[in-house]
Protein 1
Amino acid sequence: MRPITLNCRCGKVQMRLDAAPVAQFYCHCGDCRAVTGGALAPIALFPAPAVTITGGDTFTWTYKTLPRTRCATCGTLLFGEPPGIGMRGVSGFLLPTERFEPTFHIRCRQAVVAVKDDLPHFKDVPTMFGGTDETVDW
Ligand SMILES: [Zn+2]
Ligand SMILES: [Zn+2]
């Protein structure tokens, strides 16, 4: 994949992605909802070394064990970094629309809005994330 550079909403922070995403999905968990202010969080998971802040000031807040990094000026969420897995979950809505291609939904058991599409809707997380492939029926 050719590297791509993303910007926060105000343009002060630049973030470079140097690899293809490992997975792209939507998370419906209560934590993502509360910290993002959305009904679900679009996430593009990359190997952590492939996600680099190349300009601008950022600030990182940690809720429970998950630090999330935002632009220090406009507050746009850039990425979260779950401890111990060597991955960064980039906010999918920062990617150009043709590059954000989610293939499943996770933590649908906690969802407040049923998103009806053709993707699998896992109750919790799929086996690739150490869960089961159980789905909800929407
Ligand atoms: Zn900004
Ligand atoms: Zn979540």
Protein 2
Amino acid sequence: MRSWTKRRGMLSKVVCNGCGRELKVENGILKEGCFEGKQVFGYFSSMDGQEHCFDLCEDCYQKMIARFLIPVTKREQTELDG
Ligand SMILES: [Zn+2]
């Protein structure tokens, strides 16, 4: 769950939806690993027209993918954009 400052629209707060922990944000920049989930469900979904957003800290992300039957696809990124 993300909050932004009203005046400048700067990222002010990120809370993990899984465990409720507040992640480290400094000067509008998220300073730790976070999974940002965002999905708009369309016509073929029972949730048609809904947008779902959530954030997970690394611990909660690891727990989520540990339940997958098929592991996530991993690729090495040469350039990280933070
Ligand atoms: Zn968490």
Protein 3
Amino acid sequence: MPELPEVETIVRGLARAVVGQTIDAAEVRLARIAVAPPNLSFARAIAGERIVGVRRRGKYAILELGSGRSLVTSLRMTGRLVVADAGRPEWPATHVVLHLRDGGRLRFSDVRTFGRMRLVGAGEAWDRELGIEPLSSGFTPEAFIGMLSGRTTPVKALLLDQRRIAGIGNIYACEALWEARIRPSLPSGRLTKPAMLRLRRTIIDVLQRAIEMRGTSIDDYVDADGLQGGFQNSLSVYGRDGRPCVRCGTSRIVRTVLAARGTWWCRRCQR
Ligand SMILES: [Zn+2]
């Protein structure tokens, strides 16, 4: 499931490939994927729009359009957003194809069909439920301490809550907690202040390193050119149950379930 580093990598690739391009036509093959404001046809509304910018918010990739509208894409479990020449083969389950004026195609594919491409109006506050960006200047030590203090929510569940911090998913929550030596089930408010500061630092570090390696390709994630990322070779705990911890070497990584999600951690390092 693409998280912040994967979506950031896709967005950077799209910025190179599609900014300045005009969308001549949109081909919608599965209607529920392409969502438009009431009384508008997605395909008709988007035809002729120019792409003036590309950005990321949380796990969403956003194409900013000349009219002031935005095309907000969520990839959810298995979505892919790839630019290619018209002649290149499509990924399986390609549901929306944007025809670009230079002959290129921006294709959205999604085997599980949970992803969406949503056309939102100018000024529409579609992201007001999303929390702070962990790589922004707003993610200060004070903000993070304030978020955790007094809460009984397990710290891992809090990291996954998009209304508090936007963009962290299961992979990077597990990795950051392991690096900070914090037990995933610990109630957030029970972390010491040094542990909170350490965790904030490791969240930033692990996200930045993953972006440098262009994301983690374990399941379906590919970048905007259809290429895999490289961070799956640098994971310390995620998906490594039964293998020795790479830090202490004496304990094996365990997988438990927390907030209905698989959680990988080291019983020795993360007490
Ligand atoms: Zn360990």
Protein 4
Amino acid sequence: MCDAIYIHIPFCVKKCGYCDFLSFSCEEKNKDDRGEYVEKLIEEIRLYPKLKYDTVYFGGGTPSLLDVDEIEKILKELNIGEDAEITLEVNPQTVDRKKLEQLKKIGINRLSIGIQSFNDEKLKVLGRIHNKEVALNTYNDAREVGFENISIDLIFATPDQTIEELKKDLDIVERLSPEHISIYSLIWEEGTKFMDLLDKGELDPLDNDLEAKMYELIIERLKKIGYLHYEISNFSKKKYEGRHNSKYWKNKKYIGVGLGASGYYEGIRYKNEIEFLDYYKKIDSNEKPLMEVEVVSDKDNLENYYILGLRLLNKGIEIEDNIYMKKIKDLHERGYLKIEDDRYKLTSKGLMFSNDVFVEIME
Ligand SMILES: C[S@@+](CC[C@H](N)C(=O)[O-])C[C@H]1O[C@@H](n2cnc3c(N)ncnc32)[C@H](O)[C@@H]1O
Ligand code: SF4
């Protein structure tokens, strides 16, 4: 009844310097390629039983690069529940007011806009194709055509960013008042242009203490203006938590379709083929395009439940008697976890060192 589907669209206008998501720039993939991809995607959807979805998430890459009728064609393949959350990731500069209007008409009811920063200089360093003005226009157009559930993505701790610059971004967030904000600290990923520039000494990561200070500032400021800090990097107004992503963190099953997409279905975690040719070949022979398949053991399932569950800051995890409790009690004694409503949750200290907490649980 409450199933989820993630649909991966691996195309972008231009690759951003920091990004290692599976996506190809339009110079590499033209419009005909995109049309063919949509056809194969639809065939892949047909390889799964017709489930009823109450969350649909178009992610990427840049799903907003597709034509509206291509997105509509995909939606028509799905059995979607009445109050479903249907999210589309939007890159400003790939949509105008008319396209936003059409997206609303075909049933998209939540937008996740990849703004990243409202500072033109920073946007340039990040390699984004939009500037502040375009970001603001996209947001305002989306509102004016009637989107009532808008999320924005931001990145902080970008090279040379100052507290003052971050504060200016947060001032604009306050003014825009989106229903949902995902804010990530910049991750320096292997194989990206940023890593290359780091190796050459042309870009530097921000100091760790400054990054921690920025994260604290973000939490304090967004809470003050009424946002619920419900996941490590996610904030929302009341009742606007991302329903789709929350299912991941609740360790629920979901189908993932598209190049390189992952899914968790019938006790199996899988990842699709990451090369177009391999992906197409399997679909052409009526086979799910799986590249990696892992049967989730009871132990793995529990581990996933703990690590994902702790990310949900107000939910946390149950106190149980099992092999992980010794580590959990130890983290509690050292101040990384607290007990609230009979559940373990991350403390502020745990939040600052969440990756270390998760590694400790997994070891
Ligand atoms: C899958 S991306 C797709 C969104 C969309 N393509 C865009 O960029 O506008 C989702 C989000 O992940 C974040 N992200 C991607 N790479 C990152 C990195 N290396 N460090 C921190 N955040 C990153 C960005 O905020 C981005 O909007
Ligand atoms: S951050 Fe978004 S727009 Fe930039 S390359 Fe990655 S997926 Fe594409």
